[in-house]
Specification:
The chain has twelve helices and 18 strands. It is α+β, with helices and mostly antiparallel strands. The protein folds into two domains: 24-174, Immunoglobulin-like, CATH 2.60.40.3120; 179-220 and 241-450, 3-Layer(aba) Sandwich (Aminopeptidase), CATH 3.40.630.10. The strands form three sheets. Strands 12-13-15-14-16-18-17 form a seven-stranded mixed beta sheet, with helices on both faces. Helix 3 packs across helix 12 (446-465). Residues 435-446 have a biased composition (Polar residues).
Amino acid sequence: MAAYTDALDHTSIYRRAACDSEESDGEGGLGNLSRLIVRPPGQSGKAKRGQLCFDAAFECGNLGRADHITDIEYDLYVRPDTCRPRARFWFNFTIENVKQDQRVILNIINLAKETTLFDGDMTPLVRSTSRPKWQRIPRRLIFYHRSLPHRGRKILSIAFAFDREEDVYQFSAGASYSYSRLQKHLATWEKRAQAFATRQSIAQTTQKRRIDLVTIGDYNTNKDKEEIKEEPPVTKPIKTAEQKKRVVLIMARTHGGEPPSSFVCQGFLDYLLGSSEKAVALRNNIVLEVIPMLNPDGVFLGNQRSDLLGGDLNRCWNRATSYAHPALVAVNDLLKKLASEKNVQLDFIIDIHADISHEGVFVRGNSYDDVYRSPSSSPERRVLAGRVLSPPLPKVSSPAMQALPGRLSRRHMLKSRPKTVLDVDLMLPIITESRQSQIDKSNSGSAERLALDQLSDEYDTHESDS
């Protein structure tokens, strides 16, 4: 696949590109800092070298406020999600106008959750215009601690030294994956996969962005066979089992602040382009309906969980409206269509997420205790997900997840699940025979490492091409 690097060219969100949506100028970047020079109190006029310029008015950017504490210390505040003030974790901003060897301490003050992977080995990322490859800030320079000057709040402090005056430095909670990058990737992927896949827009968001649906495989179950000219002997008619086409729906990026889910989804789409035995079997035997980005507005705006109107799409399935949740309405319509088809069997709905509190790769879902509830509730189908996902996955490191029972029922999930687990009965009241599984990829776990490895390969390709 062609390598796409997010150029750190300091493009303002208020300068709309030709391929961007019409309403992006008026809404995008609302509340983000836009090239703000942070000076000591009482100073004005032309900015001197070393008076830092903060900017987050670009796609996926997030920084709402920057305060000058001392010449080396700055307090930074994450901008809450639009219309959802309690969602605050994702940050992504740039700093320029630095001095050679200038040392600073950046305090990120208002993270919404105190228990995060910053308690462990996860650290923010940094890159610059001369070094566009993301790098993790060394752990010895990161301090996640309770600060008495900040009323005992747990803050994230970053000690950093700028080594090149001409560079623009970008700091982020994780490797960002933008809506624009997805559109570029799908445009190239579609050309290579035109023999077995189609791409269409099933809805438009509030800000007129596409909700892409990629269909891989063919719904036609009738295979071409040679006609037999000889008349078969007269026998009693034998009833043959109706052959149904197996369908799996995959969704990603319900929340803007979970870019690892986009990297995982892109890797899966690229894998299906290959000629391996498994890739060919997947393309030929099942139909994959893939929605790579369910919340483009939230991604574009740099929100952690919500869309433009403040709705958490993971909690709105049972009350979705065409005005506020066009993506959910489109998915519900797709599911109704699949449920009405007699020759189609929806096996799984896989919703890929990322988690800021748990490491590793883990699956949350539901099954039914009543074997006779429907034909799709057979024990064989219930264990299918475990068999599909059983090849080497990293071990679950969270004690809370290790304590969950091996056979998850709805009763077990209600007792033991964290608050972030999706309630399937609220999500899909119209589809009772489907299985919903939610795969969480942690920002510092294997998914993030895969994302960074992928970025490294892309940068290596980009450098070699240039």
